[in-house]
Amino acid sequence: MSFDEINLKNKIQEQTKDLEVPESLMPEAVEKRLSGTKKKKGMKPIHYLGIAAAACFILVIGVAGGKIYDVFNPGHCDAERVVADADTKGKAADGGENGAGAEGQEAGAKAEAENAVRTAEDYDEVYRYIKAEQEARQSYGTDLEMNSGFLGGVFSEDGAMAGGAEIFTEESVMEDAKSADGGNTSFEGISQETGRRDGGEVDYSDTNTREEDVGEADIVKTDGKHLFILHGQRVEIIGIEQDEMKELGVIVLDDEVGVEEIYLQDDRLVVTYTESRQEGEGEYATYRTYAVAETFDVGNPSSPKSVGKIAQSGRYYTTRIKDGYVYLFSNYYADYEVARSYEDGFVPVVDGQKIEAGNVYLPMLDTARKYLVVSSFSLKEPDVVVDNKAVFGDTDLCYVSGENIYVCENSYAEKKSSDMEESKGREVRVSQTSMRKIAYKDGKLTAVGQADVEGTINDSFCIDEYEGNLRLVTTVRPSVSYDDDGIMPLWLEGIVPRATQKAQVVEDVEMVREEKDSNSLYVLDENLKELARIEGLAEDERVYSARFMGDAGYFVTFRETDPLFSVDLSNPKKPKIIGELKIPGFSDYLHPYGDGKLLGIGMEVDEEGMTTDGVKLSMFDISDPANVTEAHKYVLEGTYSTDVTYNYKAAFVDVKKNLIGLNAFGDGARYYIFAYGENGFECLFSRDLMGLSSDVRALYAGERLYLVAGNTVVSYRLKTFEKIDDIVLGAAGR
């Protein structure tokens, strides 16, 4: 099977694993993707989305009706080139240095104005953006209908849905399990600690999170004494203080809600779900979707009690928790049909009240329909909203650091190209990320600033905050716009025969091919003003994964080989590419693994970059960032995908205990646990799972490891992986 076929298969599997249609595939969301490019009326853009390793590519027609952003020409610079005038621009934005005079002050004021996040004066101002979006769609309705067969990329979101009812097979018990105490003297072994935390509490793990000290909801949580497991419409509470697991209690949610995730802190369990409510009666009746965070007191596990809930407009997106405050995120699409006649149709609601106009952050483009709604509450008072904001614009990614929220939106912008004179009136454009920064503390939300950077961000690991600065790596993709009235359908190279394409299309295709993908690294200050950038990295490839660690950064691009770039970020105004390792395949998840080590999880691909050999674990030696090496690798032959590719929460990585866990798909699904030593990776344990199991989680508490898959929990000795007990959730019939 070719890499492209696997990539497509993985995407289809991910998009269809839940019965409920994901937000990104709802009709309005697909239309929004198609309308993502903002241009003057009469101009029809073609986008090159660039599947990096593919022999084919996708051309998408967008809806016109918005603003074009001028951005700096990325060119094709040397890999270590840093824009020389970045510092000068920063000084100008500050009003100049050493008596820069009126010109410098004017430039500084302009930069300040462009950097400011605008809030709405009233609901009328909000509605004007929605109206403009609606008019743009109506003007280009023919194009949208013609392209209703759109085949797009996977736009992943933080968080995961609850798993299905898959279970372990009885006959596959520890097929590859090995004792950690013998057989391989090179194995560093599992920590021989007592399994107790300070104060005598049992040591236990959390599921994988993006940011240190920022809590995240997931489908399984533990406090060391109990497992809280989201399964269907129930949260099962399992006692694990003894070898024999016991069902102690259950929280049953209404059948009509879509339960999403849970979060546990002390004796408070937050359950998030999406529900549909009927509002109004008769001909005015309508159904609206709300994201809900309901908090339960689980101090008595056998009798959990609801102590409050918050509901806000939209479908659940994700949750973050910091210093006892919960931040709930949802995506809400304004309702065209009832706009103005029923005001709540275009103004989001939090806890029954419309968000104040002054709490709506206006879009960076000229039209909009979608909001990212953020509200906060304290775990001590889970029915009281502390603050709320509605970020107006088509959010594609949200990164939450320890102090700030970065809301990112994809669009396209003009590129000042030397090829413009040869383009027959067409414009070369490139992908762009528009971001807004919102500070959060003790439940309060405050806008800080906004900025545009060239290129799009692959995932939240490609953007990172450190010592007040923001570091990010993007993939810059080309686009061509033209201004004739010819019919331009959605072309998928390789599916539509070339003979059927108009000459105009062929010319545009060739022009896009000449404008190859590249990658850029940016450093922005605390006000999102650019400190430096490096451009022209890994031409004709795209970023697959990244990890920033202190003063260093690492990112992987891929087409035929896997270049792992290392970046020196010790001087944020002068970052330098100091290393580049090229190996077959790619890593699409990177995780720090102790001093001088970086774990990569991805795929082994042949040297031509066309056929996969299986899921691959790589351990990179980064002790010398200028000379990074792949110290060891392990390929799971016969596999084609892992959940970690799409959801970092599926990775079980514990450096202290030297454990690496993941599930992989081949003819079926199988869960693996590895250790790493001086001789490489060692498979300690593996077990078949029933069907194509997803949303599998591994956690430990004390000296026991718990593997949760669907409706089954199995416990093992942490040192030997000897099976202790198993339990089927809901078997008691509650």
Summarize the structure.
By secondary structure, the chain is mostly beta strands. The model is unreliable at 1-100, 142-199, 416-425 and 482-506 (pLDDT under 50).
What does this molecule look like?
By secondary structure, the chain is mainly β. It is 11% helix and 43% strand. The chain contains 7 helices and 45 strands. The strands form 10 sheets. Strands 1, 2, 3, 20, 21, 22, 23 and 26 form an 8-stranded mixed beta sheet that branches. The protein has a 6-stranded mixed beta sheet with strand order 4-13-14-18-19-17, with no helix packed on it. Strands 37, 38, 39, 40 and 41 form a 5-stranded antiparallel beta sheet that branches. A hairpin with a 5-residue loop joins strand 44 (712-717) and strand 45. The radius of gyration is 26 Å and the shape is globular.
Primary descriptors:
43% strand, 45 strands, disordered N terminus, mainly beta, eight-stranded mixed sheet, single chain, globular, 7 helices, 734 residues
Largest sheet: 8 strands, mixed
N- to C-terminal separation? 46 Å
What spatial form do the alpha-carbon principal axes imply?
A: globular
Fraction in helix: 10-25%
H/I helix tally: 7
Mean pLDDT: 75
- Low-confidence spans: 1-100, 142-199, 416-425, 482-506
- State the secondary-structure class: mainly beta
Radius of gyration equals 26 Å
Write down how many β-strands occur, each being a DSSP E stretch of 2 or more residues: 45
Percent of residues in β-strands: 35-45%
